[in-house]
Amino acid sequence: MASVNLADIAIPAWLNRVTHDQLNIASQTPAHAERWKYTKAQKVLDLIEGATEQPSISGLEQNGVSIGTTIDPDLAALLYDDNAPEAYIAACLANEVLYIDIQESLASPINLSHGTSTVPVVIRLAANVAAELFEDCQANEDAIHLLWIQMGPASSLVHSRQSFETAASHWQFLHTLQERMSTYTLHNHTLGAHLRRQDLHVTLNGEGAKFELKSAAFVRSKDHLDQQLTVQHTAPRTTSRQLLNNIAADKASVTCNGRIHIHPNAPQSDADLSNRNLALGKSATVNTKPELEIYTDDVKCSHGATVGQLADDAIFYFTSRGIAPDLAQQILSKGFLLENVAGPNKDYASHALSQALMDSLTGAAS
């Protein structure tokens, strides 16, 4: 972040709760430098200063949904995150912020599609509201997509995100703040890209809040995927589950850093993080770093990560039954990848991921 002159950034009046000094401090911490160890930060900073447009949205005609280009000042604090000052800077530099307020449960999903760099989007669910959000990254050019979600008490959101464009550099930032007894489910399906950076920050801010992530990713040869996950348990009896399966083709680069932070006032929290990685070739690069940071007793937490290749005995099992080694590799790889594909767009995501995987494996074989 050193290349950005924070003093030159005009913080909008409705975001004036954060000072330039705070931004400077947050952007220069060792933790922040660690988060950008595997992705060139300058590329993202260049994207931040580019032009943005409104995303394509449908489903807003339903009762209880309103839309605007400014947000309630009470939500301004939602946009600032000590772990992601670059996202806050992007919000300051944007010409507008798209605000979607959902006051009633929805019969149909909200569809959010990004065809280029889009303005920051803020979605708020009122108490006891249930909704679905389908998000699609279709940008075939360098782009940024920033989304903040605030969930009221006892609200529920199922979020299905697909990112299958590969020929550009994309930065995707998502921050969710959950209040008491809310439930947020994220199905993340993605391919790698020339550069793909996914930042996910979830704050379980109310007692009994629940978060579940299932993610499946395939990264082709010479492509890049960097996933940075932070889940903050700040209230008692909160629950989080994160399951991520990634496949890296030969010469691909995959990173998954996940941190679970249990705060002192969050006893009886229950958190689990699992990142499994399959490397299809000796030159694949996989970086994984699950972390637990616990400041209270009476919690149930676990985390784990694996990096490996297809087992020889599994390949042998198939070949002993007349299946060619190349086909055996395809079957086993596809099974591993699709294990974490779920949600309302499961069929679409399964087809896209399977096709990319098969194209890569058959191309490598030929």
Uncertain residue ranges? none
Overall average residue pLDDT: 90
The chain-level structural class is alpha/beta
- Report the sheet-strand fraction: 35-45%
Distance between the termini: 43 Å
> Any idea what the radius of gyration is?
20 Å
Return the string of H and E elements. Answer: HHHEEHEEEEEEEEEEEEEEEEHHH
The number of helices is 7
As for the number of domains, it is 1
Strand tally: 18
Outline the secondary-structure elements:
Layout lengths: L19 H8 L2 H6 L5 H8 L7 E3 L6 E4 L16 H9 L4 E5 L7 E5 L6 E5 L4 E8 L5 E9 L4 E8 L5 E10 L4 E9 L3 E10 L5 E10 L4 E10 L5 E11 L3 E10 L7 E11 L4 E10 L5 E9 L3 H8 L5 H14 L7 H20 L1
Parallel strand pairs: 3-5, 4-6, 5-7, 6-8, 7-9, 8-10, 9-11, 10-12, 11-13, 12-14, 13-15, 14-16, 15-17, 16-18
Antiparallel strand pairs: 1-4, 2-3
Helix pairs in contact: 5-6, 6-7
What's this, in brief?
Helix content is 20%, strand content 40%. It is α/β, with parallel strands linked by helices.
Question: How would you describe this protein?
Answer:
This protein has 366 residues and is an alpha/beta fold. The chain has one domain (6-310). The chain has 7 helices and 18 strands. The chain has helices at 20-27, 30-35, 41-48, 85-93, 312-319, 325-338, 346-365, and strands spanning 56-58, 65-68, 98-102, 110-114, 121-125, 130-137, 143-151, 156-163, 169-178, 183-191, 195-204, 210-219, 224-233, 239-249, 253-262, 270-280, 285-294, 300-308. A 9-stranded mixed sheet has the order 1-4-6-8-10-12-14-16-18. The radius of gyration is 20 Å and the shape is globular. The protein starts with 19 loop residues before the first helix and ends with a helix. The relative contact order is 0.10.
